[in-house]
Design a protein that fits this description.
The complex is a heterotetramer. Chain B is of the alpha/beta class. Chain B contains 13 helices and twelve strands. Chain B folds into three domains: 118 residues, Rossmann fold, CATH 3.40.50; 81 residues, no CATH class; 115 residues, no CATH class. Chain B has a four-stranded parallel β-sheet with strand order 2-1-3-4, with helices on one face. In chain B, strands 7-8-9-10 form a four-stranded antiparallel β-sheet. A two-stranded antiparallel sheet of chain B has the order 5-6. Chain C is globular, with a radius of gyration of 19 Å. The chains are: A mainly alpha, B alpha/beta, C mainly alpha, D mainly alpha.
């Protein structure tokens, strides 16, 4: 186990998450892609804390921030999806284009 | 005695019984419930958890179909017995338990059941849609029409509006008639959105009037069903004991004393629709009065169908249970 | 109690099984009393029920998700065993985690997944509704449970279960945090589908998450449910009841005796109360229990501040 | 290093490799399985594995907290998925992708860049050592030097709760309590357990 190995794992998680977020039609699956990318960020933050600056709390706090961001993202994601669904029965990202302006 | 025999004998000491109440045969159901309570045997909640299937009376043609589905859904070792007279109830249950541990019979039964029958058996509580003629195709928003007959016979009912104003896919489902605590032969054909009933039809299978019984005992039976549905195991047990010993016996006094103190039960029941009363709490009090000799409330199937719409499955079950033991007026379908 | 570490895990599992048998027997005894039946040793034994489930064939539904179904079925038992792993019996503890309290919480959260999967995997409407009900109920009890777990941790200034025991001394936590204790027991009942919280496995749903299970699958689920109550009762002791503290007898004996007492309390409550309907309980959880437990944490913090040297 | 240290390190490495494989493998499965339930819980397994990796890094508290938060989140996610998605159980084969090839190439490109950076950059030397109580460090951090961060997050979470409810709910307090907000009991589709 080394910083490099951990960062490669983090990179893999981020890349897979990106693939999911870009390729999936469904809004929910897109959110799962985002979650997976943030999962990679957690690994990266934790490994930087351990291998670079373990005497300072910054890395740990960053992990907490990422976890909070994930919950916020999910809450807002589902709220928006519920609102869209209520308004017009849209479930696929391709159909939610009116949101883009 | 080999190991398997030993296990089988132990298992037969406390079988789980799926009771099939048959319309018009209320005394048989009472007798069967009394035997179960007396021996400490469990009443199965679903075919999957049952060893013995007891028909309290000869089921009519419509109910027989449901019994067949339930029988197929029992995992086995399994025994099916019928009691057509009061004196047959106890022997039927005892023979049933005895045949459970009869290994050669059970092995033959297992061999004779074809594998597909075992796997394709649907639960009577979740069996495919019957009776409705609905348009099962719907636009999927992707420019294709799909037939929503899913593998396994689950039928979607198209989109239905739920109580939060979301148009989600509805599911056609039949509740009953073999759910624990449901009156004999009553089936609720519903359209579910999530677990909320958005439409309900009351179906009475093989409708037949119940034989007369003292109103106080019927009231105690109604209490037992209501308490069972409210999940108060002890209360329901005591109500059945009171039913067995008569309305003037000590168990009845004990039950009524406990009912007066049952605040949590009243909290659970308040505000729910009831047959002929303001809510289920008032209904509970009316049943208690009926034990003392006041008149019984009367159930109305058309009103039941209206009342349960907008409730979730669990609450709807409570409302159905409140109708259970009462004489029903008005044809459902 | 010097026990070699290798023996610990089997010993703990045997203990768990023993307590499960006790809770089952106590429940049967109460049922017999309510039915006016005679109490016999044979009537209390779980063996007939175990035997019938061992013998019963495994039944399947149409298009089940067998993998997820099995995971959900075996999960509760595993979660209960893992909860028990952080409970100290005297000086002995299987897993001495510095964050034992959060660990317990994590195992309870795993149940969200397991029970829902047990309902989903069966591919039957009633079982799935049971799974949803569990989640609805979980949303109502989880925050009160977290705050109830926070109170003893604040008082001990540690998330380590052994530190929490050590912090209690002569004054058990239950004295200064009765609300947290009561809410904790309520939540144990809730995550174990126990008594008033068994709506997800209710008979109105033909058994809910249990509706389609048979044979060994059902045995695992039912045993898991009892095991969860046992684990919850065992965890309440170091948190609120002074752990192994007590006169004369060695520490681990007291831990066992107190666990037994809490367990019996839960068994009695199980039969006494009607089911709390989840949609009504949700409001109680959010409007009543969350503020109450927060208040409890505040009071605890003030006590800690007042007693700080 | 003593022989014991060598063994301990070998064990850590094996566990780490396993957890990493589980995290990445199940992460990939999320977008490969048909059933929504399987996708959600594959993601949950990936999170649990990352929680395990955090435990290897001595982050006891954060590791377990990741498990707590993410399993809860996935369970709730499953509910929404099944409510809003067609074909949640994957019983009917259908493709739910768009731009699959392009997405794959972007993802592979990202991985190459990130992993290459991770391997090539000369990372700084480790400064200091982990404190005796790692949990205490993060606790003091968010209550001391990093308090502003957490207060900011608190404010954002509160905003999120309010705005998510406004977005998702079709009913307002006027629907419940009437125009003068005086209707009691509230007109709810289902009555709750508190109040008259």
């Amino acid at each position: 186990m080394s910083l490099e190995a951990l960062l490669v794992v983090a990179a893999a998680l981020i890349a897979i998450g990106l693939y999911g977020a870009l390729s999936q039609q469904s809004i929910v699956m897109l959110m799962m892609g985002l979650e997976l990318m943030l999962n990679g960020v957690i690994v990266a933050a934790a490994s930087f804390w351990y291998y670079v600056a373990p005497s300072r709390p910054d890395g740990q706090v960053l992990v907490l921030v990422v976890i909070s961001v994930m919950t916020i993202e999910m809450a807002m994601g589902f709220a928006v999806q519920t609102a869209i669904f209520r308004a017009g029965d849209v479930e696929l990202t391709d159909e939610a284009t009116e949101l883009s302006g | 005695m080999g190991l398997t025999e030993r296990v089988a004998h132990a298992a037969a000491r406390r079988p789980h019984v799926l009771l099939v109440p048959v319309p018009g045969q209320r005394p048989l159901r009472w007798a069967a419930e009394d035997v179960l309570d007396e021996r400490g045997w469990a009443r199965a909640a679903s075919p999957a958890g049952a060893d013995v299937l007891l028909c309290c009376g000869e089921p009519g043609p419509e109910l027989a179909d449901h019994v067949e589905v339930a029988w197929e859904a029992m995992p086995g070792p399994r025994v099916r017995v019928v009691a057509t007279a009061l004196a047959e109830v106890r022997p039927a249950l005892l023979t049933g338990a005895a045949r459970l541990s009869d290994l050669p019979v059970q092995r033959r039964d297992a061999r004779d059941r074809s594998a597909p029958a075992l796997s394709a058996a649907a639960d009577p509580a979740a069996e495919p849609e019957v009776g409705h003629d609905m348009d099962h195709s719907m636009d999927m928003g992707m420019g294709m029409d799909m037939d929503m007959g899913l593998p396994g016979g689950l039928q979607m009912a198209g989109r239905v509006q739920d109580r939060d104003g979301l148009r989600l896919e509805g599911l056609n489902l039949s509740l009953g008639p073999l759910l624990p605590g449901w009156p004999g032969g009553l089936r609720l054909d519903v359209v579910l959105s999530g677990d909320v009933l958005t439409r309900a039809d009351v179906v009475r299978l093989d409708r037949r009037p119940e034989p007369g019984a003292p109103p106080s005992l019927v009231a105690l039976d109604a209490l037992a069903m209501l308490l069972d549905a409210a999940g108060w195991t002890d209360g329901a047990l005591r109500a059945r004991r009171a039913r067995a010993t008569g309305a003037s016996g000590p168990p009845t006094q004990d039950l009524l004393r406990r009912l007066r103190r049952a605040r949590l039960l009243r909290w659970s029941l308040r505000g729910l629709p009831a047959p002929g009363s303001e809510d289920l709490v008032a209904h509970l009090d009316r049943l208690v009065d009926a034990v003392h000799g006041a008149g019984l409330p009367v159930a109305e199937d058309s009103r039941l169908a209206r009342d349960v719409v907008g409730l979730d499955v669990g609450t709807a079950s409570l409302v159905v249970a409140a109708h259970s033991a009462l004489e029903a007026v008005g044809a459902g379908v | 109690m010097p026990v070699s570490e290798l023996l610990l895990a089997p010993l703990a599992l045997a203990l768990l099984a023993g307590f499960v048998v006790v809770s089952y027997g106590a429940d049967r005894a109460l049922a017999a009393r309510a039915a006016g039946r005679e109490l016999t040793a044979a009537g209390l034994s779980p063996w007939p029920d175990v035997a019938r489930l061992l013998l019963q064939r495994r039944r399947t539904t149409t298009a089940p998700d067998a993998l997820l179904w099995r995971v959900g079925g075996a999960g509760p038992l595993v979660a209960a065993a893992l909860m028990l792993a952080v409970v100290p019996f005297g000086d002995t503890v299987i897993a001495d985690l510095p964050v034992g309290i959060v660990w317990f919480n994590a195992m309870d959260v795993l149940l969200w997944a397991f029970i829902w999967l047990a309902g989903w995997g069966a591919a039957s409407a009633t079982a799935l509704i049971g799974g949803y009900r569990y989640l609805a109920q979980a949303l109502a009890y989880e925050l009160p449970l977290m705050f109830a777990l926070t109170a003893p941790a604040v008082a001990a200034a540690s998330l380590d279960v052994r530190e929490v025991v050590a912090a209690q001394g002569d004054r058990w936590h239950v004295v200064e945090m009765p609300i947290a204790f009561a809410v904790f027991l309520l939540c144990v009942a809730a995550f174990s589908l126990w008594g008033p919280f068994r709506a997800p496995a209710g008979s109105d749903l033909a058994g809910g998450v249990f509706a389609e299970t048979s044979g060994v699958d059902r045995l695992l689920l039912l045993a898991g449910r009892h095991a969860l109550v046992v684990a919850g009762a065992a965890f309440a002791v170091p948190l609120f009841l002074g752990g192994g503290a007590g006169p004369l007898l060695p520490d681990w004996t007291w831990q066992l005796l107190k666990t037994l007492a809490v367990l019996l309390l839960l068994v009695v409550v199980r039969r006494r109360l009607p089911v709390l309907r989840p949609e009504r309980f949700a409001e109680v959880g959010w409007v009543l229990l969350v503020p109450l437990t927060l208040l409890q944490v505040l009071v605890t913090s003030l006590i800690v501040l007042a007693e700080a040297p | 290093m003593t022989p014991d240290d060598v063994t301990a390190e070998a064990v850590t490495t094996v566990v780490f490799v396993l957890l990493a494989l589980v995290a990445v493998g199940f992460g990939f499965l999320v977008f490969r399985v048909d059933s929504m339930a399987r996708a959600t819980f594959a993601l949950a397994v990936s999170f649990v594995a990352v929680g395990g990796i955090l435990l290897l890094l001595d982050l006891d508290y954060l590791g377990v907290v990741v498990v707590v938060m993410m399993v809860m989140e996935m369970a709730i996610m499953a509910v929404f998925m099944i409510a809003y998605m067609m074909n949640p159980a994957g019983l009917m084969p259908m493709s739910m992708y768009h731009d699959k090839a392009r997405a794959m190439s972007v993802a592979v490109g990202t991985f190459v860049v990130l992993a290459g950076g991770a391997l090539l950059v000369d990372w700084p030397e480790r400064q200091g050592a982990p404190p005796a109580d790692v949990t205490e460090q993060v606790g003091l951090g968010i209550m001391g030097s990093h308090m502003l961060v957490m207060m900011g997050i608190g404010a954002v979470i509160l905003t999120t709760i309010v705005s998510a409810l406004v977005l998702a709910s079709a009913r307002s307090r006027y629907d419940r309590l009437g125009d003068d907000l005086k209707t009691r009991p509230a007109r709810d589709p289902i009555r709750g357990g508190v109040g008259p």
